[in-house]
Please model this.
Amino acid sequence: METPLDKARKSPRSMKARILTEARRIFGTYGFHGTTTRMIAMKVGIDISTLHYHWGCKKDLYEAVILDINYDLRRKLIRVEKAIHGRPLEERIAMSVDQMTDYLFDHPEISNLILFRYFGSMRDKEGLDFIVPEFISDIARSMGLSRDGDSASSRSMLEVLTIMNSIHGFISGANFFMSMVHLRKKEYVAMVKKTLKFMYIPPFVQSEGEAR
Model:
């Protein structure tokens, strides 16, 4: 049986899809507890009863947002894996940083929601979560830090988390950081990618082949 999320993804111009798009953005800005369904309905230009008809309660819509983001992240990761497969480690890291940074800057709600979930003081205790461990294992495999996702060691997963959390932090703090370093967005994104490569490529390449 098709879920509301299945229908929204199948028909991107439908009302369900419009609501989902705004829900991603608003949950990503204010978090689960700071968002109301009325805020989302107002942004879409509908009454709240229409929103509830399409998605049910706030928790149902939030869970759909998390599922939608998980699906998009997995699909993006598969594309990155195909692009970097078989290349030298330095190229794999550089390409991964470029592609994931561009993708996450285009979808800042992803980084915001991940940081809300794992570093916020208030979390809804029920419902779905980001499948971060699976993502981290997949990235470790793509970078050649483990043979396959299941065998990723604690060290290789922490190394990947270091890079990913740096990207998320630069994205979530973009408005504050851009004013601090006096850069416009395009310049800021380019500098973020350059900085990440400067910080992470040399130690990874130097330690290539070490047991992890």
Observations:
- The chain has a mean pLDDT of 87.
- The chain has one domain: 4-206.
- The longest helix spans residues 58-84.
- The radius of gyration is 19 Å.
